Amino acid sequence: MTADDGQRGTRRNRKISFFHELTTVGFSHGRFHRHFRTWFSLKKSSAYFACAALIVVLASVVNAQQQALTPPGDPAAVERGQRLHVQECGFCHGANARGGSSGPDLTRSALVQNDENGRQLGEFLQVGRPDRGMPRFDMPAAQVADLAAFLHAAIYLNANRRLYKILDILVGDAKAGEAYFTGAGRCATCHSPAGDLKGVGAKYEPVALQGRLLLPRARVVPPGATPVPLYAQPTAIRATVTTAGGESASGGLVRMTDFDITIYDTATGATRSWLRNGDVPKIVLTDPLQAHVDQLPKWTDADMHNMTAFLASLK
Description:
- Helices cover 49% and strands 10% of the residues.
- By secondary structure, the protein is α+β, with helices and mostly antiparallel strands.
- The protein folds into 4 domains: 11-68; 71-163, Cytochrome c-like domain (Cytochrome Bc1 Complex, Chain D, domain 2, Orthogonal Bundle); 174-218 and 293-312; 236-287, SH3 type barrels.
- The chain is elongated, with a radius of gyration of 33 Å.
- It starts with a helix and ends with a helix.
- 17% of the residues are buried.
- Mean pLDDT is 82; it is low at 15-28.
């Protein structure tokens, strides 16, 4: 039995004793007030500890939210902290503090999220966790502050992903990309720089080009435009359904389960559904982007960069 169990048992026994005397022994006016004060103090203590626990939890949430909402104050400190983290902590926690070979994600650590300018972090680093394989670190206060600045900045960027800027997309060789386009990539079997890809480099930014190269099914919706469902787009997976009576219908695949199938008829703008029972009705699926799907596991970083550079050159 733990100490907590003993304390709970003591409080419970005192409550039982109080009600026992009320119901079996009888009580005087003074005894009633004495026991009432005892009972009230127990209730008040429980409420106090509950409120204290709630305050601690709320403070932790507020601190974490504050870090997520507060942009980094000193970029130089963040940069120094990042270098220090990679040197001292990166082996276990990863170069970006998101977890590594044996250490957890520090951006999700309650201690880091509740840290105030390195104070709690510094106290923790001075003792470490030898029982879990983490040694102690003797860092000057300035280094601890830099490390905390980097970790707080990482939390802020994780919570505000829309602020992330993709840089250095055009790092490939356009000539090598053209060779891949007409050769190993077999892109020329469906596409042509002078045909459907004419001027594509002027139409899309490099980031969007690379995204469409790898995952062309999703379409970017211009501001103010009405989104078009995937099943109604030209690149939608198409399904041809043939019933037992020989009736056939084709359209964009809306959904298919073991029990039913629904397609979208672009001519009428309506959906049609059938119940499935084994192989009835007969269903044939056709994916116009199957070549891109097959290509996904074959891409190398160099091929992606070279192809992006080539497509961006098609002005």
